[in-house]
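Box 3.1 A note on notation
Throughout this textbook, protein chains are presented in two layers. The first layer is the amino acid sequence; the second is a token string describing backbone geometry. Keep the layers aligned when reading.
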Amino acid sequence: MFKKFSEKDSVSQSSQLKSSVIRNLRHNFLQQYPHVEPYFDEIWPKRDNVKLVKCQDHIELIASQTGDILFFKQRDGTLLPTLRLVHKYPFILPWMQVSVVLDQIAGLVCRELTRMNKKYRPRK
């Protein structure tokens, strides 16, 4: 079902990004997630060299100077934070609350969803 990620087979190209491209990526991310702006320099320092790693199926990974993968995107889509980054900064993605009717339906379909605080992350 899931393929194992191997650097030799999955990565097709890795390159250093120009400062203008980095500025553009930072600007686009801050437009998507404006509430992250006070913490963004901590997440992605301004003077940090960034690498773009191109993988199969048009997936691009954005890695920091230390080699940590910060964001990924598919084709020309939006930048999405990695799961590791979401665990470190859980407020990056917006929260939403589910109505009572949907909560009852989710209780029938999947009990684990209704056990927590009844707050779920939105899907776009």
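The two ends are 24 Å apart (CA to CA). Strands lie at 11-16, 51-55, 59-63, 69-74, 80-81, 96-97, 119-120.
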